[in-house]
Amino acid sequence: MQTRSLARTRNLLFSLTVLATCLAPARAGIEDRDNRNPTAAYWAYNVSVATMQSVISQGNRVVSMKVVATSPTLLTIAYVPNSGTYAKTWWWAVDYTPTSLGTLIANNKARLTDLEVYTVGGSVRMAALMELNTGTNSKGWWWYYGTTTTFIYSEASRLGARVVDLEQYVEGTTTKYAAVLLHNSGQDAKSWWSYLNVTSSYVTSRLAANGARIWDIDRIGTDRYNVTMVKFTGEYCWYFWNLSASAVTDTLSQYGGRLIDIHQYSTTSGTRFDIVLVNSSNALSRRVADLMLGKSDGFSGTYLRRVTTTSSATLAYINGDKRFEPASTLKTLHLVHTMRDIYVNGTISLNSPLTVTTTTSATNSCPFATTPFSMTAQNVLQGMMRASDNALTKVVTDRYGMTALNSTAAALGMSNTRVNHHIGC
Known about the structure:
Helix content is about 25%, strand content about 40%. It is elongated. The strands form 7 sheets. Strands 1-5-7-6 form a 4-stranded antiparallel beta sheet. α7 crosses α10 (about 400-410) and α8 (about 375-385) packs across α9 (about 390-400). By secondary structure, it is an alpha+beta fold. β19 and β20 (about 365-375) form a beta hairpin.
């Protein structure tokens, strides 16, 4: 491991520190921002150190961390299961002095993957994510603090490196910078660009002009950013500004992505977030999502599961937990409930007569009264499913009631499914 820091040492008092170490088998050194393998992905905001420790204890690894408050310490985090190609031996630290963080890095033979710099009572403090930098995960890297961007970019040029994390902060009355550099070679070699104090619209224009994607972005003020971008090479990647917390969750689900960078800030409209995400879905999920994105201003999604007598597996999943109005898809529940009544309870048979009391028209999908007539249960069910007939669906709903239909849904594990009204109305 190669490390460098500014030669000006500081006699900072050692403060309360928080450190965790999380061990896992070493993997080939692919950067999280380059990892295209599917994985579950999560995020949380305004969480305490204790809450983050709980998240990690469940087998997760934090991949992005931002300090949003210092008294008490509150964090915004993005995390993934620490398994498969995302498995790392890693550590995290909060409220370290620069000197103590440097000692920790050296002792663990680690490499910084995310650095946060802030001040507490006028003193510089750091929070960091780091991973083991030995074996197949070993990379040439450097880090700096208390310096200028001129010095940082000069070092990047001299060392054949690129900036992968740039932090701006104020010490006293002076604006200073900290940075993490990565040797720009091998699988990490990329064309890259860095821009300081630019607007979101400028970021967008540079991404288009450079054919690039965001690698690291720091919000330094209202619509002002420091951004580092790298050449786009076919990765699925997106970025969004000024989202509410619920919109962040909805966006991750809608795009099937995972966060690689997130910034939280306050506005007159409430807490808002700027986010950068990359694909986190398998090939089939991604293909379906691409077909649906942009076709509607609403939500879209897919859930495809193969079920056999001996096993089951989820084949595609985008927005699968999103509650929505399923329209005629919900008639499957009416069919299952009736077939259970026929074959399990034996209350009726397929030949049993059922009374139809409503009909529909080309201009009115909500069943309305008509002269009653009789149909067999089989014909009612066939018309309900083949022709998606709302009047015949109402026959089933009226016979069993919505409460009974919802009980069947619960028994089938459809805990978020409810029949609340007659379909078509």
